[in-house]
Amino acid sequence: MSTTIAIVVATVLVILATIIPTYIISNKKQTTENDWAIADRSLPLYVVVGTQFASAMGGGVLVAHVGNAFTNGVGHFLYGVLASLPFICIMYLAKWLRRHNYTTIPEILRTFTNNNKAVTVIAALMTLIVPYGWVTSQITAFGNIYANLTGIDYNLLCVLFAIIALLFVMPSGLKTVAWTDFLFACFMCVICVICVIYATIMGGGWSQISASLNAQDPNLLSFTGSLVDNIGVSAAMLWIFAVLPGGLTNQIYFQRVCAIDDEKKVNKSLVLSAIASTLSFVWAVYMGLTIRSVNPDAGSGATAWFMGQLPLVLLALFAALVFATMMSTTSSGVQTAVMNITRDILPIVAPNLDDKKTLRISRILSLALMVLAILMCLVFTDTLTWLTATYAFSAATLACPIFVSYAFRKKKFITTQGVVAGMLAGLVGCIVGMVLETTISYAAVGVGFSFVVMIVVCAATRGKNAVALED
Questions:
Q1: pTM, whole model, 2 decimals?
Q2: What structural domains does the chain harbor?
Q3: Which tens digits make up the pLDDT trace of 47-78?
């Protein structure tokens, strides 16, 4: 059997093994708009953890982070810690979110601004750009990786991948996406364990792997040395002010908190999701270093080199793993971006739509967004730069309005003017930091602008305008 046929067969089997059970689950009763948006708040704990893990892992952990660990050493694990911390930070307001039945980030901000339409629209746009950035980056990455593995045309692969993603989203929105993610997550865990075992055997065991790495560069196995000498303090600071705030404003994480079946399980789901996310980066760092011990010349293409060393069956399964991680992130991104339009923007333009019409529009928008994503991927094959920018602008615009508003929710301090000013200041600060190429990350500049301006304007306009909430 040729490599291409083996990879295609393995990928098709993974698709069928996930899509058939999720279709059965979603067809147990008629799909409602609540199913589409928040799985009718019925997801069990294990599904929530699985979908959080699968959505967060993405293709970046399998490829980019393995390559970065290969180059920089164990210090790259800092990135994993920062990427996992948002789950813990969201615990600060998670039960409050679930208790008040929120579904989107703009809904949270509407609470503090008397349903202000401008806040709703700005927040919706700044929220959906991140998951939409995920969609385009995953389609592009899949097309590039599978084109190199199979020789199939890049454009055709992108189109096929997008069509399959729609098959996971269309039936019941988050309900099918979440259950699919859970099944993907189970598959990911099995294949990742097999890869660790195979790589360790390839490297001759940990003692030989560590001896080889120490001979190449002692900093590789030193967290401090790797972080300071290989990665650099400035890069680490960029991670701190981009990765962490970006995760804190990622609606995908919030949405799954709101979809869990029992409020009492919310914090447990976030802790388990943080642990699962952290372990995925442990895997990436271990794989990157193990590959380097065997072949110091593999470079940033460490994952591709490793795949080339695998027996045909394992290569096909690893390729299917790549598909599963990228498909999980893509389907989640499409679903949550559509929800921002149907639940935040559409009611302003066309109020009083019934559930059936909203559900129909959700499916139409899913198709429209995917077509736009494909067109972008066919024209712009490098989406990493603008994906990073979406994280920065989303965090700068939304982080302070969300968390500062929550912190002062009982103090009669937050005002609509303050929230609007904080959002606009974050946006302007981000642009200024980007244009001036400031030493500090432009995301950090935006967050700083947002915090200061929001506090000042809220203080100046408090009184009758301020909002105070009761838990």
A1: 0.86
A2: 3-398 (1.20.1730.10)
A3: 999 888 887 776 678 777 888 899 999 999 99
